[in-house]
């Protein structure tokens, strides 16, 4: 696992034109680099990565139900507690309250149950 997060791995993975890991910030619109940055964030700090996915799923008008459901259901037994803490720290609102305010009905009940709200 350590090899995956090492600079040697990044240098092996990156094409020749991106020899320096700092070049990952070179072009924010480049889809390859955007995907690579997301993968690295997910490996290095999964709670913050998934907090961002949840925040973006809830933000604005409507809900990205697919992203919200995917994170809550797949992380429920892994690190959902850390994601909830990261969400509270970043947004000053408990994740349960944000989910309850953005969803309704059985869908809301299911998500809140997975989040541990009684």
UniProtKB/TrEMBL annotation:
UniProt remark on domains: A pair of annexin repeats may form one binding site for calcium and phospholipid.
GO terms, molecular function: calcium ion binding; calcium-dependent phospholipid binding; phosphatidylserine binding
The protein's name in its UniProt record: Annexin
Annotated InterPro entries: Annexin (IPR001464), Annexin_repeat (IPR018502), Annexin_repeat_CS (IPR018252), Annexin_sf (IPR037104)
Domain of life: Eukaryota
Keywords in alphabetical order: Annexin, Calcium, Calcium/phospholipid-binding, Repeat
Gene Ontology cellular component list: cytoplasm; plasma membrane
PROSITE patterns named among the record's database cross-references: ANNEXIN_1, ANNEXIN_2
Family indicated by similarity: Belongs to the annexin family.
GO biological process: response to cold; response to heat; response to salt stress; response to water deprivation
Source lineage: Eukaryota, Viridiplantae, Streptophyta, Embryophyta, Tracheophyta
